[in-house]
Amino acid sequence: MQTLPLPETLNAYIVYLELIGNKRQATEHNYQLVDLYAMRRSVERSKSDRPAVQPVEDTYFIGHSSKDRAFVDRLYADLKSNGFRCWYAPHDIRTGDEFRLVIDQALQEYGGFMLVLSRNSVKSDWARDEVEAIFEREHREQKQRLFPIRLDDSIMSAHQAWAASIRRQRHIADFREWQQPEKYTAALTRLLTDLRPRAKDPRTRPPSD
């Protein structure tokens, strides 16, 4: 099935669909774009129907690449065993849930976004989108929301603007040697120490631009 090129055509086509208000005049080769448009509309309606959500402090949404699951499974278990409430997709998305709606709601409800940075996640579009959204949220709320963790050195050489902002402005928890038990324990201990006092720590404001 032929599809129109993305993303420019998608933006123009969304405008077109907004003008006609439905799928009626869409041709067969545009069905993919119509479905994307319908999904976006569903997300927007869900947002408008929900009351404003106050994030719960000292709770964390864990953003990661599925290729790093071995590490994130371990980190998630250790954070939970140390009393932290975390949202982690493999454990918290239920059968039948709409991925984007559930993830969007969790990002609003959880106070912190713990981003696992690796060669797998740094090159992904979702990491860029979520980091840019978190930067906007920090600016709006004047509170730190992003908590980066690295598994390798990819973030230190990445050319993307969001990646450069992270390495310039944030301390990044170092889990590069996480597969060595003693190194992992030391990195986890440091992370837990950094996370625990945040509720009363005046340094929790994000760095100013």
Structural summary, described in words:
The chain is α/β, with parallel strands linked by helices and 209 residues long. The protein has helices spanning 8-20, 31-49, 69-81, 89-92, 99-109, 119-122, 125-141, 154-157, 161-169, 181-195; strands spanning 56-63, 85-87, 110-117, 146-150, 173-174. Strands 2-1-3-4-5 form a five-stranded parallel beta sheet, with helices on both faces. Helix 3 links the parallel strand 1 and strand 2 (85-87).
What is the share of helical residues? 40-55%
Mean pLDDT level? 75
- Global structural class: alpha/beta
**Unreliable runs:** 1-11, 13-18, 20-39
User: Termini distance?
Assistant: 46 Å
SS field, number of helical segments: 10
Oligomer: single chain
Spatial sequence of strands, sheet with the most strands: 2-1-3-4-5
Rg, please?
Answer: 19 Å
Outline the biggest β-sheet: 5 strands, parallel
Strand content: 5-15%
Total strands: 5
| Overall shape | globular
Order of helices and strands: HHEHEHHEHHEHHEH
Question: What are its keywords?
Answer:
5-stranded parallel beta sheet; 209 residues; 10 helices; alpha/beta; disordered N terminus
Summed up, what is this model?
With 209 residues, this protein is an alpha/beta fold. It contains ten helices and five strands, in the order H-H-E-H-E-H-H-E-H-H-E-H-H-E-H.
